[in-house]
TrEMBL record:
Catalyzes the first step in hexosamine metabolism, converting fructose-6P into glucosamine-6P using glutamine as a nitrogen source. Its main location: cytoplasm. The active site is at 363 (for fru-6p isomerization activity). The gene is glmS. The lineage of its organism: Bacteria, Bacillati, Bacillota, Clostridia, Eubacteriales. This is Glutamine--fructose-6-phosphate aminotransferase [isomerizing].
C-alpha cells in the first residue's frame, strides 16, 4: 500500500501534491492557439447564444465547485446560474426547459442523487453537460456532453485534486460561453487563458509553503469550533474549506458570507476562537479587513489567506497570513483552496484520525 501512495504517508497528501500536474493535464489540451476547444462537443454555439439560464447540480465538494462556477459564468458570460444540491433539485419539480443548459459535476460519476437530477433535467428538455473524473461512469455516459477532469484516480475520501480540476473546467466553460456570446472581448479571453496556464506553476509555489500551514495547524488542532468567513468567490471557497475540515478532523466548523457575520455568527465568537478568512478578492479586501476587526474585537484568532501583493496589509489585520501567488481574483479559488486542504490534512493527522478513511463517510454515495 505504501508503494501505491508513492512514498507519501496518506493518499490525501499524495493527491494534493498531484494538483499542479493534474491541472496542467486538465487545462492544456483544451487550449489551442489561444482558443478554448472542447473535443466532440455537441452543444452548439446557437444553444449557448439562446441559453436563458444555466443549472449547476452536484453534491458535496462538487457542489462547492459549482458555487464557484456560478460566479465565473455570471461574471464572464452574463447568463444567470442556479446552483443546487442534487437531492434538493430532483425533488422540487424544477423549472427546467430546452432554453436552459444543465451542468452536472461529479468526481465519481456515480452519485445517485446527481445521476437522478441529471435524468430529471434531460427529461425536461435541457441539454446536459457533465464535469466528471471517472471515465465511462454513469453520469458521463448519460449526459449529452462530458468534459473530463483529468485528475486521475482519487482514493482519499476527502476530495482534493478533483475539486481544483472541476474549477479549471468551469472556468474554461465560462470563458468559452463568454466568447460565443461576445460578452467579453478577445483580449480579455487571452488574458484569462494566460492566467489559467500559469496556475500549475502557482500551485507548485503554494505546495512549497506546506510547513507554514503545518506549523499553524499544530497550534489549533484541539479547537472545538472553527469558522470560515469570505466574500464572493471567497465565500464559495470557505464552504469547501469548512467541509474539508469537518470531514477529516471532526471539528465543528461553519462557513459564512462576510456580510452575514453580523446576522448571527458573531454571537459564537469567543476568546481564542479560530476564524479563517480567505481575502483573495481585491474589490472586497477592505470589507474583509472590517470583518477581521469585528471578530478580533471579540477575541478571535484570525488566519488570513491573501495574495502576496497584499501581505503587508493582511499581516496588519490578521494574526497569521498564508499567501498565495498573485493571480487574477476570479481564478484565485483554484490556488487558494490548497492551503485549506492542507490545513484540514494536518489537523486530522495531528488528531490521529484516519485521514484517508474518515468515520461515517463514503467516497461515493450510490444510495439514498
Ligand atoms: C461523497 C464524498 C465527497 C464528494 C461527494 C460527491 O460525499 O465523500 O467527497 O464530494 O460524495 O461525490 P461526487 O463523486 O459526485 O463528486
Amino acid at each position: 500500500a505504501s508503494a501505491e501512495k508513492g512514498g507519501y504517508e496518506h493518499f490525501m497528501m499524495k493527491e494534493i501534491c498531484e494538483e499542479p500536474a493534474v491541472l496542467k493535464a486538465t487545462i492544456s489540451p483544451r487550449v489551442r492557439d489561444g482558443q478554448i476547444q472542447f473535443e466532440h462537443f455537441k452543444l452548439t454555439d446557437e444553444m449557448v447564444k439562446s441559453c436563458e439560464k444555466i443549472n449547476i447540480i452536484a453534491c458535496g465538494t462538487a457542489y462547492h465547485a459549482g458555487m464557484v462556477g456560478k460566479y465565473a459564468i455570471e461574471k464572464l458570460a452574463r447568463i444567470p446560474v442556479d446552483v443546487d444540491v442534487a437531492s434538493e433539485f430532483r425533488y422540487r419539480d424544477p423549472m427546467v426547459n430546452e432554453k436552459q443548459i444543465t451542468i452536472v459535476i461529479s468526481q465519481s460519476g456515480e452519485t445517485l442523487d446527481t445521476l437522478m437530477a441529471l435524468r430529471e433535467a434531460k427529461k425536461k428538455g435541457s441539454h446536459t453537460v457533465s464535469i466528471v473524473n471517472v471515465v465511462g461512469s454513469s453520469i458521463a455516459r448519460e449526459s449529452d456532453d462530458v468534459l473530463y477532469t483529468w485528475a486521475g484516480p482519487e482514493i482519499a475520501v476527502a476530495s482534493t485534486k478533483a475539486y481544483n480540476t472541476q474549477l479549471a473546467v468551469l472556468y474554461l466553460l465560462a470563458l468559452k460561453f463568454a466568447q460565443i456570446r461576445g460578452t467579453v472581448d478577445d483580449e480579455t479571453i487571452r488574458y484569462y487563458i494566460d492566467q489559467l496556464m500559469q496556475i500549475p506553476d502557482h500551485m507548485e509555489t503554494v505546495l512549497q509553503d506546506k510547513e507554514a500551514i503545518q506549523r499553524f495547524a499544530a497550534g489549533h488542532y484541539n479547537a472545538r469550533s472553527i469558522f470560515f468567513i469570505g466574500r464572493n468567490l471567497d465565500y464559495a471557497l470557505s464552504m469547501e474549506g469548512s467541509l474539508k475540515l469537518k470531514e477529516i478532523s471532526y471539528i465543528h466548523s461553519e462557513a459564512y458570507a462576510g456580510g452575514e457575520l453580523k446576522h448571527g455568527t458573531i454571537a459564537l465568537i469567543e476568546d481564542g476562537t479560530l476564524v479563517i478568512c480567505p481575502m483573495t478578492q481585491d474589490a472586497l479586501f477592505e470589507k474583509m479587513v472590517s470583518n477581521i476587526r469585528e471578530v478580533k474585537a471579540r477575541g478571535a484568532v484570525v488566519l488570513a489567506i491573501a495574495a502576496e501583493k497584499h501581505l503587508d496589509e493582511a499581516e496588519k489585520a490578521a494574526d497569521a497570513v498564508i499567501t498565495i501567488p498573485n493571480i487574477d481574483p476570479l481564478l484565485a479559488p483554484i490556488v487558494a483552496v490548497t492551503p485549506l486542504q492542507l490545513f484540514a490534512y494536518y489537523v486530522s493527522v495531528m488528531k490521529g484520525n484516519d485521514v484517508d478513511k474518515p468515520r461515517n463517510l463514503a467516497k461515493s454515495v450510490t444510495v439514498e
